[in-house]
Amino acid sequence: MLTSSHKPATQKSVSHVINKALLIVVTAFAAMLANADQAVELIYFYDPDCASCRKFDDEVGKIYSNTSEARIAPMRKFSVEGLDAEAIHQRLGEQTRLASDILGTPTFVMIQSGAEVDRISGYGNDELFWMGLQRMINRVSPSSP
Question: Could you tell me the pTM of the whole model?
Fold first, then answer.
């Protein structure tokens, strides 16, 4: 049976554990936010009616997420079907800044810290895509993953 003298010690140790857990969570969240500043992604602008986009999807798109490149720059698909340049920028949001408008599809834009690093316009074949992607990855700041 617990006496009243043990109760404050138990409450104190529970409080200590909770405070430690909160500190760990806050520290992890701060680290996540710091890494988000350097976040890298590859945005794939496509149109469902685009033959080159379909060719990319068949040759590369279906395997991209399983590649080492995807761990460095995860791909986000962004449909531009029926959108003008202003609508594209609005849907991307203020946190993503393109160096210039998307003029055709497919277009692949490497983003780091919310800003465009480089891009590939068009798709000829998988070999040219992987070479262009490697060029873009090489341009990403070393402080990134």
Answer: 0.72
